[in-house]
Amino acid sequence: MHNTTDMLIELGAIILALGILGRLAGRVGFSPIPLYLLAGLAFGKGGLIPLQASEEFVATGAEIGVVLLLLLLGLEYSASELVTNLKTQYPSGAVDFVLNALPGAAAAILLGWGPVAAVALAGVTWISSSGVIAKVLGDLGRLGNRETPLILGVLVLEDLSMAVYLPILSALLAGVSLAGGTLTLLISLGTVGIVLYVALRHGRLISRAVSSDNPEMLLLVVLGLTLLVAGVAQQLQVSAAVGAFLVGIALSGEVAEGARNLLTPLRDLFAAVFFVFFGLSTIPSDIPPVLVPALILAVVTTFTKIATGWYAARRAGIRSAGRWRAGGMLVARGEFSIVIAGLAVGVEPRIGPLATAYVLILVVLGPLTARWTEPIARKLTEAVRRAEPAPAPAAPAVGSVELVKSVKSVEPVEPVEPVEPVEIDVDADADPAPSRT
């Protein structure tokens, strides 16, 4: 009874603190994720108020938070939208991967963390935060802009690529052999392919089977199905997050809309718990040694994400202002970076503090770059144009100066008065002129 009482008190204090922090973030106008991470650091080991009784419950809630994050993300997209994005945006997705994953992998190798940590840190720096970016798009009133579909297309490709990346990372972290890792990847790709096929061909039947006019029944069926599929996926080493994402894709229409409305508050609660739990598992004293690498990575990948958005918008024929807006919007990192780091801390514990500092920097910087990248780029462009010397006038051709002078020296000719026409009186009776023989 004593442990239960302590757990209720701790949980109540955590949730109340999260509510206050969320309202504060809303007043200021930026994502609450940094405040949730800071709250976890304050309540965790080495923090101000270490938790004792509720740590296990918070860990379970964090797992549910990851599942719900991916489920709600999958509900945002239909299978046809995913296929269309794959066909049209794959060059932008490839550029996104090269520009943003390589800095993380290179940083891990330079720090001496090994190849597995390099794969994990590449994912941390690669994936943008869909949740933060979606909120910023709404806050800035850019949902109807021409570049917005391209931004969402890049995010969809990143989210879908997790279905391939997470099983590979999980296999590497588990120390699975090459054959075992290949088998895991084939199972993952096969599962994704089957789900997309079923969703495209029979999505209405699945939605009809899950559908219910009773909100309570719909909530129970969708949540139960998601947790079941996530657990089976985890058992197959495909990743529970990917399983939840695929369930979201398979549902469509009114069922997806109803499930989204019912599960969004639940998602927000457990996602906040997840970020707190990640902060709890990070010792604050471990952050200062990795703060400089995190700051360098943040600066480098800010510019690489801007370049990614600029390239994607340029491919679509969008003008310069829209290209810069697209680039600045993609900078924020968040939930996926923390998920990946949470998986990898068992192999390289220093990834956790580095990812925490990295996400804290970019989740604050992201909304700022979304707002100011385009105005700053425009002003810099105008300054460069003003600084360029004016083009010199073209030199006249040889002899043209003399020709102009001679033409100017010619005196104007006086106009000639018109001559009056002379009338000739012809005698009709006169003899004609003699003809010549």
Descriptive labels:
globular; 437 residues; Na+/H+ antiporter like fold
Topology summary:
Blueprint: H1 2-28, H2 33-43, H3 55-75, H4 79-110, H5 115-126, H6 130-139, H7 148-173, H8 178-210, H9 215-235, H10 240-250, H11 253-280, H12 291-315, H13 320-329, H14 335-344, H15 351-387, H16 400-409
Notes on the structure:
74% of the residues lie in helices and 0% in strands. The chain is mostly helical and 437 residues long. It has a single domain, classed as Up-down Bundle (Na+/H+ antiporter like fold).
| Helix and strand pattern | HHHHHHHHHHHHHHHH
Described by strand count, sense and barrel closure, the largest sheet is:
none
The count of DSSP E runs of length 2 or more, i.e. the number of strands, is 0
Task: Give the percentage of residues in beta strands.
Answer: under 5%
CATH topology call: Na+/H+ antiporter like fold
CATH architectural type: Up-down Bundle
Total domain units? 1
Main structural class: mainly alpha
Structure at a glance:
The protein has 437 residues and is an all-alpha fold. It is built from 16 helices and no strands. Helix 3 packs antiparallel against helix 11.
